[in-house]
């Protein structure tokens, strides 16, 4: 019964929180540029407008693939917040990304094809760190299950500081923030229009945006997993850390210019090897 309640709460609250985070992102980004910015609820207005518009379908399979992406993102979040297996969470999230890449590749467009190729490069960049983090959680707590990890006596970040830093680094890729927003971009300077979503429109594009909100909440939930333990106040601390990390990502997004794919890949693997690898080595020697 508790699992069903958690799943329902995620399904209802995640898009609300994700939309507010998107509005907060736009507002802070505008302030960095000396503008007032749109209203905090503007993402919800935009989503409603997209759902009310007719979508132009490039081919018959594209809608199915976007639907698969949407379903698997929600499925991944439900597993995580229901206390499921971390490995299953990461594998399901990867499968969701594969659906999105296939959707972009199915369109006869050089921009979406280029976006799909760059998305594959991004997956190569962040997947090793995500897998190392899952392994680190297992060594530190003896379990891959989220429900057991949150019941540890001390915050996991105490023994996984390198993993936390590494995950925060790849979070810039997953949140599609500069300098690593190479496959698609919310900024106007992107040389390939919107990359992955160039050929999407109407309610199909709205599903991608909504799935992004669900995914943002899931990723911040993983950040909070480093902090939450048996103490009741750890939940408040986790929320504060998530807000701080999201603000840091917005700050980096507005401060750094976008880099090329090779620099993104090289720097990410370097951080994974140094921060994640050394942390994992120390962890295996201690535990």
UniProtKB/TrEMBL annotation:
<feature type="transmembrane region" description="Helical">
    <location>
        <begin position="123"/>
        <end position="140"/>
    </location>
</feature>
<dbReference type="InterPro" id="IPR052561">
    <property type="entry name" value="ComplexI_Subunit1"/>
</dbReference>
<keyword id="KW-1133">Transmembrane helix</keyword>
<feature type="transmembrane region" description="Helical">
    <location>
        <begin position="152"/>
        <end position="171"/>
    </location>
</feature>
<feature type="transmembrane region" description="Helical">
    <location>
        <begin position="264"/>
        <end position="286"/>
    </location>
</feature>
<keyword id="KW-0472">Membrane</keyword>
<feature type="transmembrane region" description="Helical">
    <location>
        <begin position="233"/>
        <end position="252"/>
    </location>
</feature>
<protein>
    <submittedName>
        <fullName>NADH-quinone oxidoreductase subunit H</fullName>
    </submittedName>
</protein>
<dbReference type="InterPro" id="IPR001694">
    <property type="entry name" value="NADH_UbQ_OxRdtase_su1/FPO"/>
</dbReference>
<feature type="transmembrane region" description="Helical">
    <location>
        <begin position="69"/>
        <end position="102"/>
    </location>
</feature>
<dbReference type="Pfam" id="PF00146">
    <property type="entry name" value="NADHdh"/>
</dbReference>
<keyword id="KW-0812">Transmembrane</keyword>
